[in-house]
Description:
Layout (H helix, E strand, L loop, with lengths): L5 E3 L7 H4 E3 L15 H7 L3 E5 L13 E4 L1 H8 L22 E4 L9 E4 L4 E2 L5 E3 L3 H11 L2 H10 L7 H5 L9 H19 L11 H9 L1 H17 L10
Amino acid sequence: MSEIVDPRQGLATADNDRFLRQWFEVAYQTIKFDAHSITESVESKRKWFPYNKGGAFRKWYGNYDYVVNWEHDGREIRNFKDEKGKVRSRPQNTDYYFREAITWSDIGSGELSVRYRSAGAIPGNKGSGVYSQHSEALITVLAVMNSKVGQYIIQIINPTITRNVGDIARAPILNIRNIDFEQLVKFNIEIAKRDWDSSEISWNFITNRIVSAIAEHNPLTIWLILLFTCLIRITSSPPSQTMAT
């Protein structure tokens, strides 16, 4: 596989509790969701950027939940040292930061679940990625690795619960383009994306699917539901913890 795509490991912060947050734990205006390069991230003057941490079993799309402190090109992380002055973090393969990718979780007791990751994120060391200048190559890799054949191949290469970059790089794959094949994969991605974005934990969430269904048949009912929800939030006591900035 390494002949047609670039499997790469990402950023190891050395202290996730310090440098990572779930996106809804920080002020929304301090997050840059759509940076396409390190230069663009610096120019944005934002503090938090999407971080691909891996996460739970999920195929095709999802696990867009963490952000990392990469303010000023990761100045704090790059200078995170131990008591002897040795740098603890590993901001490796930075040329691949913020690029479109295919990713998976480094550790999993079940099947390997491979996902499409849109541009804008920093890869983590437990959420490594496969990169290419050609989107078609990424689609091919995604399809093969999510297939029964792909699962069998990975189990032969590494029968443990860890799937690292080297394992993926050694997987055999034919770089054959098929338009029908690509459309099926993109359809799967779109279904998984709609499912992910239907939950409040998604930063692309707009409205609940049940509420949408009600709205299609009775606009008055949905208006009353939204009004009731707003009243509950207004009358509720404020949270006890201060939001991170």
